Amino acid sequence: MAKENITITRITPHGLRHTHATILINKGIPPFTIPERLGYPVKMIYKVMATLLKLSCL
Question: Rounded to two decimals, what is the model's pTM?
């Protein structure tokens, strides 16, 4: 999934939270520990994981 010419001009604290959750998921951190750390509902973490799995299959 190579992207060229990507410029990030602004990242919000909310965006950093999503990035952090994604990194934790990719590192193999158990999904039930991530909501404790970030204050997300478990359902949200599984939604993010499903999205990542779909993207990795492209």
Answer: 0.60
